[in-house]
Amino acid sequence: MPIGKSTYRTLVAACFLSLAAPSLAVADDCRLIPFGVLTPAADLQDRLVVTATIAGQPARALLDMDTPHTQVSETKAKAFDLRRRDRSLAVRETASQDWNEEFVAFSNIALGTAQIPDLEAAVVHEDLLGADVRPGAGFMNQFDMELDLAHNAIRLYSTKHCEGKVVYWSDDYLLLPFELTRTGKIVVEANVNGKPVKARIAPGWLHTGVSTKSIGNLASGAAGQGSLVLDSLEFGGLKLQHVAASIYQPVPDSATPTGSHVKDHIEVVEPDVTIGDDILRKLRLYIAIKESKAYFTLAGAS
Questions:
Q1: Residues linked to residue 222 through DSSP beta bridges, in sequence order
Q2: What is the value of pTM for the model shown?
Q3: Based on the number of CB atoms within 10 Å of its own CB, is 135 exposed (0-12), middle (13-18) or buried (19 or more)?
Q4: What is the pLDDT of residues 51-82, one digit of tens each?
Q5: Which architecture characterizes domain 32-142 according to CATH?
Q6: What architecture is domain 1-23+170-302?
């Protein structure tokens, strides 16, 4: 059940207690349909790189939830002999700054047993941080995701379940409504130093950060070059204090070129704060895509 403010204060006080082992049970009323457990590799400096399959062949997938469409390295595109294709309208409307990207199509790409056939992807020449492919929001947002980073586990589920029947590891939880932007970012209402802000939940971002456009309003103390300290960060009924944050240059949520027929219908969302893995590792979070809600507890809750 959702819990109130008095209980969340107890949760905050318990933030650094030892963590309990994860449960594998499911909700009694509505059984979740799992698509497997993804285990981030231990050799990539906390990056969320997991095992995937491309056309039945093993590959490494980088989860960072920061690109609207899937990307594949040039080397793997050639190795898997992926066929070239023109960008679809959906991709053209959410494409990155580089409008000269080559696109290919996967006959099948899978994370665990979660898979999408005929998925298009941009061929990139940049380093994907030790990975072969970076699944974009167009792939990841087809499924619910449970982030259990404290136990080095990411679980994918079908979006078909009874509303609110997803937290199987604890009787009590906190609820965080979110907005899913056009390019797949998960944006929530939050407060920093008592001021309302837009924040995005960003698995794969190593450190929580503040955009340069918001530094003047939110900074309370310098922690070093390129970083600052937030007196408090609140979201979904949880309050964290003395949060170290990096500083980053914001990227607009829309890269639609001038003249596009959809240009006038796009709301550009540039969150003030990005909540990264340093905070997410202290939580256990179920992202219910179709509900536009995230359910979460502290990592050790049971």
A1: 228
A2: 0.81
A3: buried
A4: 999 888 899 999 877 778 889 998 888 888 88
A5: Beta Barrel (2.40)
A6: Beta Barrel (2.40)
